[in-house]
Amino acid sequence: MSETTAQKALNATTQALSGIAEELERHAAGQGRVSSAKQLASIREQLTQMAQQLSSSQLPPKAQRLRGAGHVVADSWPYDSSLGVVILEAEQLYLKA
């Protein structure tokens, strides 16, 4: 059985949240690689809300879904950031679910 888009989105969101937690730990140790702790916390908040919506199957209409983390990543993070790629993928899948 293949994964649904919502399942793929939830998996990607969970992976992004894990990556953000790791990056926040690096920031706490003074060794952060991307962004700021404040920006990461904001993205984490959005991803957490996305995960809750995906896991409860109560997604708002597509026009009303959370968005913005992808724009922040694309506009201000290094292009070779693996965490950025995961965040972008999570948001894209969430918007398609």
Brief sketch in words of this structure:
The chain is mainly α and about 100 residues long. The chain has four helices and no strands. Helix 1 packs antiparallel against helix 4 (about 80-95).
Overall mean pLDDT: 93
What does the radius of gyration come to? 13 Å
SSE string: HHHH
Number of helices: 4
**How many strand segments?**
0
Shape: elongated
How many strands, what sense, and barrel or not for the largest sheet?
none
Structural features, described:
- The protein is mainly alpha-helical.
- The protein contains 4 helices and no strands.
- The two termini are 17 Å apart.
Strand-helix topology:
Blueprint: H1 5-28, H2 37-56, H3 69-76, H4 82-96
Keywords for this entry:
97 residues; mainly alpha; 4 helices; single chain
